Hints:
mainly beta, six-stranded antiparallel sheet, five-stranded antiparallel sheet, 24 strands
Amino acid sequence: xxxxxxxxxxxxxxxxxxxxxxxxxxxxxxxxxxxxxxxxxxxxxxxxxxxxxxxxxxxxxxxxxxxxxxxxxxxxxxxxxxxxxxxxxxxxxxxxxxxxxxxxxxxxxxxxxxxxxxxxxxxxxxxxxxxxxxxxxxxxxxxxxxxxxxxxxxxxxxxxxxxxxxxxxxxxxxxxxxxxxxxxxxxxxxxxxxxxxxxxxxxxxxxxxxxxxxxxxxxxxxxxxxxxxxxxxxxxxxxxxxxxxxxxxxxxxxxxxxxxxxxxxxxxxxxxxxxxxxxxxxxxxxxxxxxxxxxxxxxxxxxxxxxxxxxxxxxxxxxxxxxxxxxxxxxxxxxxxxxxxxxxxxxxxxxxxxxxxxxxxxxxxxxxxxxxxxxxxxxxxxxxx
Length: 385
């Protein structure tokens, strides 16, 4: 008979930071429900077992989403709040899921299967990690461990939020990842998929932009500093918690995100790459202090606003929707600054346009840096290197 296990995850805080962080199996344990393997080396027989645990936010926290990484020997079906999320049937291939949560009480449940006729010893185990994102930027990470509850059998409705598992005993911890046999043997070690398949920002569709002082694309313009702004309001209540930015400027720039200082640069041939974390928000304001030191001038940028609520990322590029001012008014970097009277930027050409040619994109992130001379000072942004 086939062994089925249902797992619910109780959330213990291991990190509490305002950032988007990587999720892997660090700190997780292989668990099952029937106790230690038999003395003769046999592991678990076929049969049904059920596990659950719950998430009740504390201190008024409001969860937004859960990033889930899971694998099971032999197969699983994952539920969140009674809803089917996904399935897997190869312990060597872990899978990722992103699920929106409700604000009060959430239940994670997994129905796992230890198949009959498995190799000698018939091992069984579930390995999982879950990352919870909150609306204030806090992040919780859960690992499978002995805090889980389980009973033999698969009670009807086990995946539902209202199901009562208060009398269930604790799960058995088989051992930690990645040190527990047989899953530490080459060929049985689970492969962890990439965290994101999003391509990130691209300058290929960006435009060089400047002010109405241009007499033609790439023409010489007066020396001095100009201000540029772009406000992104995410549709349908989407939330972003990170911006990935590529930027190049002729001649120099200082970049701000939501009023905080990201960094400065002075190259139009090689872009700077930034990764900026911030508390989840549906409104992101990019401001640029740009200075021309003679000849042509332009700002060239692309932005990937990374979702934290399981929705698609939002992509921006410099184009005719940005706004400019031929000065640098006090407070223009403030996200609540009123730029409604500012005109729209003038485009000069796309990637590779004359006189700048193709812009090189670096492979590494730029660190947070000071404002350029004359640019507004501001508190530093949370820039990831």
